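so my prof wants the structure for this chain in the tokens format not the other one, which i didnt know existed until like an hour ago. anyway here's the sequence
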Amino acid sequence: MLIAARSRTASPRGERRPPQVRPAEGIAARAYEWLLETDQAEGRFTFVWRALVWLVLVRWSWLFMTAPWGSNAAGESFLHLVNLPFHEAGHLLFMPFGRFMMFLGGTLGQVLMPVICLGTFLVRTRDPFGGAVALWWTGENFLDVAPYIDDARSLDLVLLGGVTGRDTDGHDWENILGMLGWLQYDHRLAHLVNNAGIVLMLVSLAWSGALLLRHYRRWPASRHKPAPLG
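here's what i got, hopefully its the right format
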């Protein structure tokens, strides 16, 4: 009986068992699918408008990254107006958690919104290009916040009401760093946040550029197909 059972469970001679997938390989395959696999039905129009979006992001990135320190290029751009409602909403959202979180909530609100968009594009809509754009937006918000942090002691930055922190009771990051006892680190922290934003933007451009290249290579026949007559 034991010999018969073994003969039934043993693989036939010469038959190869399917290779076992290691957990790390499964995670890598899943990450590859989420980050680089796009809808195979996407055509020319999608490629063209995504390429235009990518070029705009490259242009903005260049302007923000090459701007002199202290010029507040990101804060004076059109995108600052996009970030501002989420900043103000963050104050209201985190107000119930105390005074410190109310001040920090503005920055959290404008940073968390693109992060939420990033997760939505990757998990819900399975649109990695949209996720890459959301990652770029996250990095841009870091650049938008950095001058605010850098101004914690000097309070020279003009705020929403047209006044500076000196004309009021300070601003968010003057209060945040003051409550933490970190005011002397304002310049270092600002540079760190700014550099982190630049890294995120560069990663986003490389990621979205790779997606565009894969899209371009996927339909070579249709690019050279002559248009129908009549």
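also thought this was worth mentioning. DSSP finds nine helices and no strands in the chain.
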